[in-house]
Every structure is written in structure tokens, then in C-alpha cells.
Amino acid sequence: MNKKILEKLLAEYEQKIDGILKEYGEKDGFVINGILWWNYYTRLISDMIEKIKKNELTEQDARQFYKEFGFGPKFYEKLFIENGLDKIVELFLFLSDPNIPPEQKIKEIVEDPESEHYFRGVGINFVTLFLTSFFPQKYVQWNIQTDGALKALGLYPKKTWGEKRSDFYLRINKVCSDIRNELGIEHMPRVDNILYCFNKGYIGAEIRKHDDRDDPIIVGPKKSENSHSKMQYLLLQIGNKKGYDVWIAQNDRNKSFNGEEFSKLCLQNLPSFTQPPTLAIAKFIDVIWFKRGTSNPIRFFEVEHSTSIYSGLLRLNDVKIDFPIPKATIIIPKDRKNLFDSQIERRTFKQSELSDICDCITYEELEEWFKAVTTAGKYE
Questions:
Q1: 206 part of a folded domain
Q2: Residues 234 and 187 in one domain
Q3: Is residue 14 domain-shared with residue 126, that is, in the same domain?
Q4: What is the pLDDT of residues 6-15, one digit of tens each?
Q5: How far, in Å, are 256, 268, 280 from residue 249 at the CA level?
């Protein structure tokens, strides 16, 4: 960590922040109704918790909170409310409990659709904004701006293969906490603000490194239908053994593997879990697991043997824009892991939060999972 560069960045921030707030404050969400964003959101959360304590919380209160809390478009207000008032109360109590570690909150609320605390309609951005607003001395917000700034500063942690985003957040938070301690900044939301201004180019132009994340799409060799079908077959069998209903892409239902016809092992019709235009896209996703007997999807899979990984991610992204996919996984040969890492980092997947819920599994790992379904926790 280069202290001189950080000190230079802080000095420029302190010199320019008044002008930045004046020019960009309202537009960028620095200032909301005349109040700095972290104070505004802390007040929103505190008001909700006070109503919960008094047993006065209403659906309208929850709806208004969802509209006001956080930056950018709100896609899932209907789903947020459909969780029910009791579940919303539980969400606030769980998030505001100082004794529950942040990685557990992210994992149970966002990553694990079978957790009792899983909450439809919110993502990691929501959870970490809550954490930094309610525990400003401990936690930083994590979003595309945080990532961009840390990468440009050379401080972005190196990801470990298979690492959950809930665990990776701890390392992001550690880096930001070190910045705070190094510079003597009063709280983590201020660190967030400095990183945001840096990534947006409001400060630090002369020290910013070139950051080109829009890599060209790399298309591999001719597709092997046998490998693709085998991976679908394994996913179909694992899903059935785990007690899920399984959907196979409409254009692959006439396939077979190991002497077994896909059409006899999967759902005959795609459950109507979202609006028709989105279902029209979802029916071509390679494999979807549903909670048995329901229209509640648990996990989405795309097998990318040699075609562009970007195309599979884009199909998942098109669904996620209209429906909060709980978890998605790309199945790939081992030699394509670096390509997946570069594609999932694209700005569009960060903005939609697909990167929050999408991971990848290699062919070898999927075969291992198939052989030991009952001990599959490593891949959950």
C-alpha cells in the first residue's frame, strides 16, 4: 500500500470535495435531500428499526424504504414486498445484529436460496450499503465503484478459485479498513466516498492506471456436443438426486446421454416463475433447478464448452434484469477459468449484479460432485 499516493489522493479529495458536492452531489447521490448519503441512509434504517421495535411497521413503510435506499434503478420492489412484513422485519433485525459476522449475513441473505434468511429482491450492494450505514466504523460498501478504484490503485485482492463473494467481501473490507487506518479517516463511508470520486475521475487523474475491462470475446474451437450433453446430463442427475425438479433447455430436450433420454428425466413444461418475455429467454438456458412442485427456481446453469462464455452470461443477465436469479453457475473446461474471470468482471454484469450471484465450476469438479452428491457442500 503506497501511503504517499493515498495521502495525495486524500489531499486532492479534501481540496475538491466542496466543488464535487456542488456539481455532482444530487446527481450522484452524494447528497440526498440536503443530507450526506451515509447520514441519510443511517436515518432511514434507524427509523425502520424504531418502528419495528414499536410494532408499528407497515407495508407502505417497507415499500418507501426500498424506493429510497441505495443508488440506481430498483428492479425488484414487488418481490421485496412479496417476502412479507414478517420476513422484512426479520431482515432488518438480522442485518442490524452486531454479533453476526458480515460474511454470514451476505451468504444467508444473498447467496444461499435455501437459507431461512434468504431474501428475494436484494443483493450484495443492498447488504453492504446497510452495513456501512449502520456500522460506519467497521464496514465499507462494496460495488462496481469500489472495485474499479481498488484495481486502479493496485490494491484489489487476488481472488481465490472457488472463493465465495461473502468471503471475498472480508478481504475488500480489510483493504478499505487499512486505507482508513493509514490515512486516519473518521469512518468507512468516507473511504467509500474517496474511492468513488477516484473511480469516477473527479480526483486522482494523474495517478490512475489504464483499466480496460472490455476484452474482446474469445471463441474457442469447434463445440463438442458430447461434452455439452454430458455436463447437462450430470446436472440433471445431480438436481434429481438433490430433490429438485429440473428443466433442460427446450432445444436440447431431444438429446440423450448414457442411454437415457433427457425428455424422460426433466420437466415437460417450464414453470411460470416470471413474465412471458423473460420466460421466452429462460427456456433456452441449459439447466434450471426448481424447488420440487413449485415455480421457485433455485439455480441456473449454462454449459460453455467452446462457445463464447459471454453469450451464456448475457442470457443469464437478460433474465436477471427482470427476475432476481438466486444463483447462477457457468460450467466450463478447466482451461477456460481465466476467460470466465475476465468476462464476469465486465461492467454490465457488475451493474446488473449478475457477478454477485454467478460462479463457475469445471467439468472435473462437476463430475466429482456427481460422484458425491451427498457431500456437495463444497459447491453450494
A1: no
A2: no
A3: yes
A4: 999 999 999 9
A5: 13, 11, 11
Question: Smallest Cα–Cα separation from 358: which of 377, 334, 376, 332?
Answer: 332
C-alpha cell at 71: 443508488
Residue whose C-alpha is closest to residue 102's, from 153, 140, 156, 154? 140
Regarding whether 184 and 53 lie in a shared domain, the answer is yes
Residues 247 and 133 in one domain: no
Between CA 95 and CA 47, with CA 79 as vertex, the angle to 5 degrees is: 40
Q: Report if residue 219 sits inside a domain.
A: no
Considering the domain architecture, whether residues 237 and 304 belong to the same structural domain is answered as yes
Domain range enclosing 129:
3-200
In whole angstroms, give the CA distance from residue 298 to residue 284: 17
Residue 175's contacts (CB-CB under 8 Å, 6 or more residues apart) are 150, 155, 156, 157
CATH code at 345?
A: 3.40.1350
Residue 82 carries which DSSP code?
H
**Within-domain flag for 250:** yes
Distance in angstroms (rounded) separating the CA atoms of residues 265 and 93: 42
The answer to whether residue 212 scores a pLDDT higher than 50 is no
Is 80 exceeded by the pLDDT of residue 218?
no
Residue 51 CA to residue 101 CA, distance in Å, equals 24
The total number of structural domains that make up the chain = 2
Per-residue confidence (pLDDT) for residue 128, from 0 to 100: 94
45: enclosing H helix or E strand: helix 37-53
Q: Which residues pair with residue 280 across a beta bridge?
A: none
Side-chain-side CA neighbours of 285 within 13 Å: the count stands at 31
Which of these, 240, 220, 368, lies nearest to 308 by C-alpha position?
220
Residue 216 lies in a domain: no
101-157: pLDDT as tens digits:
999 999 999 888 889 999 988 888 899 999 999 999 999 999 888 988 998 899 999
Q: What whole-number distance in Å separates Cα of residue 183 and Cα of residue 10?
A: 8
| 339-373 tens-digit pLDDT | 888 888 888 888 788 888 899 999 999 999 998 87
